[in-house]
Specification:
Elements: E1 2-4, H1 9-32, H2 40-58, E2 60-65, E3 69-74, E4 77-81, E5 86-93, E6 107-112, E7 116-120, H3 125-135, E8 140-142
Parallel strand pairs: 5-8
Antiparallel strand pairs: 1-2, 2-3, 3-4, 5-6, 6-7
Helix pairs in contact: 1-2
């Protein structure tokens, strides 16, 4: 089952605001005619950064399957964790440090192996927890 990532207003304002600001600066440089040939490298760099930010924003999702477990994608970053390795899920908290393939606060902190943590933000935490418990009922759920 596939889960889209929840889009938080804070994250949306930051990502979309930076993207619009950088794109606006580059468009003004092009329209004003002040950009020289050396400035085209900055154009490529800025649009690459904007493209990465938009890919992270629109390309974040999660999938649960019996064979692969939890598969997460966030732009160019992706991976999978077998559900047998997951020991605990903390819901409603935000992980500020660490790997966060997420686009919102108050998501799920997934603890797996001994000391590894992954923060995700599915649209509905309860539905995700229900589905993952179907795959591994031994996962501890905390608030």
């Amino acid at each position: 089952m596939k889960f889209d990532s929840k889009k938080d207003i804070l994250f949306s304002v930051i990502i979309l605001g930076i993207s619009i600001f950088l794109t606006g600066i580059m468009v003004l440089e092009i329209v004003s005619g002040k950009m020289e040939t050396a400035g085209y490298w900055s154009l490529v760099l800025v649009f690459s950064v904007v493209g990465l930010l938009l890919w992270l924003y629109f390309g974040t999702n999660y999938e649960l399957s019996k064979t692969d477990g939890l598969i997460y994608r966030s732009g160019p970053f992706n991976g999978k964790i077998n559900t047998d390795r997951i020991t605990e899920i903390i819901k409603g908290k935000t992980l500020w440090v660490g790997f966060r393939p997420a686009t919102a606060r108050k998501g799920l902190i997934i603890k797996y192996d001994n000391y590894n943590e992954l923060y995700i933000s599915p649209k509905t935490n309860e539905t995700f927890i229900t589905k993952i418990l179907e795959l591994n009922s031994g996962i501890k759920i905390s608030e």
